[in-house]
Amino acid sequence: MPERGVAEVGTGLPMELLTSWQSARSTRSAMSIETPLAPHLRGRVIDSIHENGPKLVEMTAEEVRELRRHPIGLRLEPIRYYWPALSHTEVRMPAPMAGGRPLPVQIVSATTGAALGGARVKAFTDFPGRAGATGTSDAAGMVLLDLGSGPVLLERLYIQAPEPGYWGAYFSPITIVPSQVFQLRPLSFPFVDSMRHFFPTVDILGGAGVKVGVIDTGIGPHPDLSVTGGRNTVRGEPEGDWHDNGSGHGTHVAGIIASKGSPAGVAGLAPAVELRSYRVYGVQGGPTTNYSIIKAIINALDDGCDVINFSLTGDPANDEPLRSAMEDARDRGVLIVAAAGNQYRTAVVNPTRYAYREGLVVSALGRTGTFPPGSYEESHVNSSPGGNDSNDFIADFTNIGDVSFVAPGVGVISSVPGGYAPRSGTSMACPVVSALAARVLSTSPNLQVMPRDRSRVTSWITELSSRANSLGFPYACEGVGMPT
Q1: Does residue 207 share a domain with residue 167?
Q2: 3-class DSSP state for residue 281?
């Protein structure tokens, strides 16, 4: 990377080197980094973002040391990893087996009795120690849990519903027996989830004229969503394949922002925005990298996005390249909105720490009564600290500390491939604020005529903050409150 920022300017050795590697592409073979311009430089270039911008390189430890000994006016930064900001509680160690055979349970529909395949079951015999068993239901709805022949007393049982179309389930404590059947409720419409409770009406022209980029797992296709384009920045994948990678995360995030509300009437908060998809997660799953994210940011800036939504979380270590890219976005008048993360009331990590300085950070709120009793969402209820309304709660999973706003993030219903589903996480709260920010820009003549620079972002944040109301939670949990 350039020594400063994400783009080299002027002339000299750094510019000559970066320009010479411009032809590198992640879908081609690596090109040699060797050049007479820098005799001590060795390695391979895998990808280039811009002629004068960052390059992705492969180098051995010795090649790195040699470069450190002979500086060339460019900086070498490590890859960092990031994940979608969804709430997850995972089994980390197996429970002691009480008997030789696994315990079978079945997952079915509460209305039809039909078997539900693809439901994820997490059974904890020792929740603080994260000990237990986990499994996914097969086509017959059956799951085999390595807990012994049973009955088994569980401290907690989570059932993540298959998507689309169902609510999950949560029990604490519960004794399960062999062949026990668990019923999951299907979604029904209309339904007032947490987002629709706080934002019951939607202006179909909300966000008109504003371009929102979603850096995520890709978007759609989905009948509720209109995406004008984007880019895939995953190494080795086609640049034009910016659709959902199969996880549904980016499609769900996009629906919260810009769903048109048909055919089932599940509308987003700013359905008139121009939506663009920047896919940074591959079809094989797993985390993304800071390089893919930076490439997506730069492409979003080049495409003229006004808002960039970051529903991802990750590395606590310093990530100077990502910080530089976020600074560049703010310098060009683009508002970054980031999820606070889901590490259960701990301090925010990157990229959120940088977003707090350059844009906005959003924690997650829930409300009792906006999801069915016994649903997965009940596991996120936390009564402390209390707000002005006893039905509102700060989600148990949300990170706190450097927080700008709070928004609904528990049991939010939105689009996923093939239909609709409820999901929870600061990933869901973040696009609520992205949509509200788009609505503010769309209806503010003063912001619209400002130059696209840092002053526009500062004024934009000030305007959005002036429309926020405290819900009575500590500042570390809600920032200045919830925007309207």
Answers
A1: no
A2: coil
Question: In angstroms, rounded to a whole number, what is the distance separating the alpha carbons of residues 136 and 142?
Answer: 8
The string of pLDDT tens digits covering residues 22-46 is 777 788 888 888 888 888 888 888 8
- What is the chain's alpha carbon radius of gyration, rounded to the nearest angstrom? 24
| CA 23/CA 153 separation, integer angstroms | 60
> Quick one: 282 and 389 in the same domain?
yes
Q: Which of 178, 164, 158 is nearest to 374 (CA)?
A: 158
Tokens, residue 79: 């890859």
User: Does 445 fall in a domain?
Assistant: yes
**Do 43 and 110 belong together in one domain?**
no
Per-residue pLDDT of 118-146, as tens digits, reads 999 999 999 988 899 999 999 999 999 99
How many structural domains comprise the chain? 3
Q: List the catalytic residues.
A: 216, 249, 427
**Does residue 85 sit within a domain?**
no
Last residue of a domain, one of 26, 45, 76: 76
Q: Tell me how crowded residue 30 is: count the other CB atoms within 10 A of its CB.
A: 15
DSSP state of 345: S
Residue type, 136: T
Sheet holding 180-184, edge to edge: 142-145, 103-109, 180-184
Domain check: are 157 and 213 in the same one? no
Domain of residue 53, residue span: 13-76
| Residue 209 region by backbone torsions, left for phi larger than 0, else alpha for psi between -120 and 50, else beta | left
Residue of 340, 237, 214, 229 lying closest to 28 (CA atoms): 237
Residue 87 lies in a domain: no
447 vs 384: CA distance, rounded Å: 38
Q: Indicate the DSSP class of residue 200.
A: -
Q: Is residue 371 part of a domain?
A: yes
